[in-house]
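Ticket #4471: structure export looks truncated?
Reporter: QA, pipeline team
Priority: medium

Steps to reproduce: submit the single chain below to the structure queue and open the exported record.
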Amino acid sequence: MKWTGVVGGGVIVLMLVAGYWGFFKPHTKKEQSGGNEISIVDTAPKPDVDEKPVEIISGPYADIHQAYSKTPVDQAVINSNYLAAVKFYQENDYENSSGILKALVQYGHVDAKVLLADAYRRGAGVPQDTNMAVQLFKEAIEAGNVTAAYALGNIYEGGAPNIEIDIVAAKKYWKIAADAGYEPAIQKLKK
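Actual output as written to the record:
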């Protein structure tokens, strides 16, 4: 198995270059040592894996689509892509960040939903769309993300394009976050 980071047009795409169809199965290798034949066996835990090669989907975010088969190796690809999106976002490279985040959100990645919601709220790499931000925050809240609840409370506190100020709604979302122990929400409710 070989992992390669490819930089093209500023987008980091981590790709699974070789299929992993035999990677998790025990391998026995025979070698000669001092005239004696020895066997070396890889005994790491091996899940049952079909012998067919993995179909590689093409496109700039193919690794994300391929990775959502939920094997441990694939989770590494997903996490790497999420971290790349966060890094792009922190460096104000919103276009590349939002491209990766959109691919991850298609598959329900909760933290990606929160960051993409913030991008829509701000118009960072995507057209500003407060309604989309609210929708993504609510989906993340349903999945248990307390940061999303806090952020949505803040939107209702200050209002935004197409969102009226609603202190009752703000407190409702802060309470969700506070009940989970999120300190900034606890402090908001004390005011």
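Status: closed, not a bug. The export was complete when the record was re-opened. Leaving a note from the reviewer for reference: Residues 72-90 form the longest helix (19 residues).
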